[in-house]
Amino acid sequence: MTHSVEYDAAENMVMAGITGKVDLAELREFAVNIIRTAKRENCFRILTDLSKAELNVTVMQTFNLPQDIVEFAAAEGLEIHAFKRAFVASENQDVLDFYETVARNRSHHIRLFHDIEEAKAWLKK
Q1: First vs last Cα of the chain: how many Å apart?
Q2: What is the DSSP letter of 11?
Q3: Which residues, at least 6 apart from 117, have a Cβ–Cβ distance to it below 8 Å?
Q4: C-beta of residue 89 within 8 angstroms of C-beta of residue 96
Q5: Which of 17, 60, 104, 106 makes an SS bond possible with 49, Cβ 3.0 to 4.6 Å?
Q6: How many CA atoms lie within 13 A of 82 on its CB side?
Q7: What's the pTM?
Q8: What are the C-alpha distances in Å from 10 to residues 13, 85, 96?
């Protein structure tokens, strides 16, 4: 598993990506890094590219992850509602469809895309 998180000043968003096999602990670490970068850069538009990730998480883990992210943000003194997050995934990552639904039901401002340019356009609206 390899991941990167950096602020893109030209796009004015935090760009995050992860490749390879990823388990829950690694997803949680990735989320913390994204939140810390967003806080440091005072930028809460997040583009996460998971299209090359091989997710090894259960539905139950996915169900609980939005609450984990709320807690990670709160630990940094941030409200999850300040974030606008776009995920880019390949068509075969069904667990992310479920994650999007759960997160949106919990009032996260989040959307799943299969095209990175569409995701950027939505974040910039």
Answers
A1: 32
A2: T
A3: none
A4: yes
A5: 17
A6: 14
A7: 0.94
A8: 8, 17, 28
- 25 Cβ contact partners less than 8 Å away, ≥ 6 residues apart: none
Task: Write the CA distances from 5 to 13, 60, 104, 106, integer angstroms.
Answer: 11, 26, 23, 25
Residue holding tokens 């998480």?
A: 57
Closest CA to 108 of 91, 83, 87, 73: 83
Place of tokens 């030209």: 10
Residue 77 is encoded by which pair of tokens? 């003194």
Distance CA 122, CA 125 (A): 5
Tokens 């759960």, residue located: 102
